[in-house]
Amino acid sequence: MWSLTFLLGCNPAPDPCTRVGIKVGECAPALSLQQATGGEWTLEDHTGQVILVQFAAAWCGVCQSLATQHQEIVDDYESEGFDKVTVLKGDLHFESVDQAEALEWSTYYNLSHPVLFDEDRSAWKTWKRKTSSVPQQYLVDHKGAIRWRKVGRESEDELREVIETHLSFRD
Fold it and tell me: Which of 19, 63, 88, 93 could form a disulfide with 97 if both were Cys (CB 3.0 to 4.6 A apart)?
């Protein structure tokens, strides 16, 4: 027998997360860092939104090329409850990024979304996968669960599809 969900072409809402981790389906770890523009940004303060958390490095060519593309995506979905946060983890010499460097990144790419700097790399140590490659990206749903993750470049269509899917589950 065909399910009503299949017939309507809808995806069922994913199960809520029950444990903290960085795998799809797990509750996102805490994330609280200083913003390039000043003040603290905390993931917990954005419950109810769908957030793309991207760990990037100023020296990373892929990260640089995604900055403008992702800003366009933020512009397209921001009014629907989507935002992105970029966490800069290191500079060209693998030194920690400071506020001035994070502000330079944000300004250079004309970003409206928060750019955070991870001076002691504590967030990176908590969130990183087995590889140190960047970018590392996580889509966190409106209830705080990781619903998608990717190392490296994703297709714009893939990212838009996953964002739209999880925006549709918002209360």
Answer: 88
> How big, in percent rounded to 5, are the helix, strand and coil portions of the chain?
35, 20, 45
Q: What is the 3-state secondary structure (H, E, C) of 70-93?
A: HHHHHHHHHHHCEEEEEEECCCCC
For residue 146, list its beta bridge partners.
Answer: 140
Which helix H or strand E contains 40, and what residues bound it?
A: strand 40-42
**Tokens, residue 115:** 């750019």
Q: Which structure tokens are listed for 84? A: 């992105």
Q: How far apart are the first and last CA of the chain?
A: 29
Tokens, residue 81: 């409850």
Report the alpha-carbon distance of residue 8 to residue 26 in Å, rounded.
28
Q: Could you tell me the pTM of the whole model? A: 0.90
* pLDDT tens for each residue of 23-62: 999 999 999 999 999 999 999 999 999 999 999 998 899 9
Q: What is the pLDDT of residues 113-155, one digit of tens each?
A: 999 999 888 898 899 888 888 999 999 999 999 999 999 999 9
Q: How far apart are CA 63 and CA 56, in angstroms?
A: 6
